[in-house]
Every structure is written in structure tokens, then in C-alpha cells.
Amino acid sequence: MRIGLIAVSVAMTLALASCGARPTPGTPEAAAQTDSQAGGNAFYVNAFYVAVDGDDGNPGTLTQPWRTIQHAAERLAPGETAYVRGGVYNEAVTVMVSGTESDGPVTFASYPGETAVLDGSGLTDPDGPVGFTLVDRSYVVIQGFEIRNFSSSDPDATPAGIFVSGASHHVTIRGNRIHQIETQAQDGNAHGIAVYGDQAPASIHHLLIQDNELDHLKLGWSESLVLNGNVENFQVLDNRIHHNDNIGIDLIGFEGTAPDPAYDRARDGLVQGNTVYQIDSGDNPAYQGDRSADGIYVDGGVRITIQGNRVYRCNIGIEVASEHGNGDASFITVRNNLVYWNHVTGLAMGGYDRQRGSAFQNSIVNNTFFQNDTLEEGNGELLLQYDVHDNRIENNLFYANAQSLLISNPFRQNQGNLVDYNLYFAPDGADGSQWQWRKNTHQGFDAYRGATGNDSHSLFADPRFVDVTEPDLRLQADSPAIDVGDASAPVGDADFQGGPRIQGSGVDLGALEFPAGQALYLPLVSRGE
To answer: pLDDT by residue (tens digit) across 369-380?
Structure first.
């Protein structure tokens, strides 16, 4: 079940009002009716209004709105909503109020059919200007805003679109567009959305981040969307994250964000239905040309499911790792994702050198990896880095590019990994395919299997995708990937498109069951592209 409120249909409310029914309390229509009946001077208990031509001395009604969002952020009571009319608000907002479980959240939302723009142009703050700041807040909804132009040239400042910290809980961030958030310092940091659980044992929990767009961000060493430290029971759903110069989604542990190491990792969450693309650190001044930004990155997280995401044209598609020698990424499930055309590799696991942490007890199942490692740096579709052990890699489709390189594994320490029931394909065929396992290289599928003991039930065959040029990675009816997977793997209930995971006599390989739904190569049209 997804966390969050059930939205009231504005269209339905209007229809009821036209038939003489009483409008639903808390909607703009109800407040407008009350305001009109009272001659424009009434406080309505559920809804207040902010407008660019308002005045903070006003009562906050529809006809006498407040002027600033900050004024609303200091006055709302549980169950109340501030509807912000369309226009540009040059302010940074610190939310000073909370809702309650019994009375409902405090909600800050663009007025239906309009877009309120929170613009940070010219604002300064020694810690970095931030669009919305929430510290130790609970039952808060931020919905439908455009947040832009929060920036700083100070390397010690961290501008952000939305920043949540302390022991905040039951926070919903939905339907916002966040763009042009920038650090202009070479060693600076910035975030689109940042959630820092910096207390212990009290955590940030019951967090929903859904249907937001984060684009054209200059992030320095930081991330587009990050959950860091003592953050648990979260959902990151259906967001679009693109054209940013560092990591798309990051789930972090072991950085000392929480004061007690036992609580210092993102955990027990779901990352689903997100589209992440054009994530590239190549032009990021902090990285000096190094292209190592992940689309989705688990950096020390635990018990997190990453499913049904589309990740393409990033430096690294998905990574399950830890950057800290005392840390690990563990009990992560990566399933039913489409990962293609990424620059360095499709999936990376483990510490990126011997001083880093490990990846163990993770499940990589029913994903489709297609023509990754576009830079042809010798990483292939699957890169197993340092200290990767006791993981399960099953039911995946791996389709190599012109290198014909499927797996790279340059460390002898990697052991105990179950790799089976996959389908592989490469332009040079089974005999010409390239493999590396525990630092040893092998040419040919049979040679690789004989030397490693891996993939005894796996296939080397053309998966028969609908279209490999767009690409459309659905299976055709004659695909050898149909009904040959291991149903005992943690495949989940639904495939990439939300259809039943098992539709025939068994589970198909890859992210999509046959028959799948609509075509997958429809162009992604997004603002600002």
C-alpha cells in the first residue's frame, strides 16, 4: 500500500456544487463559497490562500489571501491546507508547523490548475538557500510546486530544492518540479531533494516522494535525490530524474549522518517506477572528467527493493555497494528494471576498490540489461567489484554491445555468488562472447561455464526483442526467454509494466512477461529538454 492521502477530485467537487450539494470541506470551492457568504472576511477552518497580490495582514481567504508561503508555514493547524495561487514567490520557506495522525496533515499545494513557483534568485544563506526546509516536522504534504534557482558559490553552503532532517515523519513530497538548483563551487554540494536522518534512535520514517521531476541540477559532490542516515520505511515512486551532473537516486549509510552507527543507514524502503536518464558527471567540476554517476545507487543501504525502474544514458545504471570499508549494501532486491545504454556498465556491485565496503545477500532478478558500457571500457553489462559475495543473480536478460562482453569480475575475493537461469546474447555469438570471473578471462559461453560452474541452467540466445533500435525490450512470441526462469527466486508479483509476473507455465526471463503491455519506445517528452 502506498503512503499518502487520497486526493479529492476537483472536477467531482465542482459537479456536486453545481447540483446544489455542499462542497467538500478543505477544497478551494468550499473555501470560496464560505468566503463569499461571509463577505470575503471569513477564516475557513480547512483552507487558506496565498497569492502574489495578497497581504500577510489579510485573513488568508480566497478573496483576501496572504502574500507569502512562509506566513502560511508558521500558522497552519493540523488538517489545514494552504493553496498557493499561480505566480512567482521569491522566498525560502521553513515549515514551522506539523499535522497529526488524528486531525490530518498540514498541506502546502499549488492551487488546482495553477503553478506556484518558488524562486531562489538572489537569495543567500550561509548554509545554502533551500526552497522548503522541514526539521522535526510530521504529517506534512508539499505538493505541486515549481522550485527553481536556488544556488550558491560558497563551497560550505548546500543549496537544495527541499531539505528534510531531524526526526521528521509522515512527510509527503508529491508532484513538484525542481530544477536549476546549483552549486557554483568546484568542491561544493547541492541537492534537488535531500532527506537526512541525523538523529538516533528517532528516525525519519513514513516518507513518500512521488511523481516529482528533478532536472538540470548542478550538484557538485552530491545527489539529485538522496536519503542519508537514519531513514526508514520510505517510498520513492514514479519520479522523473534527468539531465543532472551527479547521482540520480542515492540511498546512503555509514557516513556518520546519524550519531549512533547502529542507525546510520537508509533501510526498509521501496524505489519503484522511476525514470532516470542523462545522469552524467563528465562535466561536473568536482569530478574533473570522471564519469561515475549512478542512475540509482545503494551506498550502504539495507533491505531495500528497487523494482520497475527505467534507467538509461547514465554513467552507471544501478549500483549496489558501499563507499566505506566498514560498510556494506545487503539484502537489496533489484528486480524487473530496464537498464540500457548506460556509459560504464548496467549494474555494478561491491566496493570500487579494496578500501571500500562489500555487497552481500542481495538478489538481482528478472532485469533486462541492454547494450550498456557504451564507452566500451571493458566493464560489460554486469560489473562485480571488490568483496561481492553470497548474492543471487537469476532470471536476467543480458544483451551485450559490440564488445560482446557480458560480465567483468576483476577480484578473486568475490565468492559464493549464485549466477544461473539467465539469458545472454552478444554480437560475436556464444563462441566469441567475452567473460571475466574472479580475475580470469574466458572466451566463449561454454568455456566460461566450464571454468566457473556458473549458469548451468542459463541460455545463450537472441532474446527476440520487439525492436533493438529504439529500443522496445518486450519479448516476441518466439522468444527463448519465455517460461524458463527460476520461479523460486524473489521475482515479485508484477513485471516492469505492472502486469502479472507469471502469465504462462513459468516465469519469463527479464523485466517483462510475455505478452506485455503497450510499446516501450514511446518518446519521453519532458519540460526543459
So the answer is: 999 999 999 999
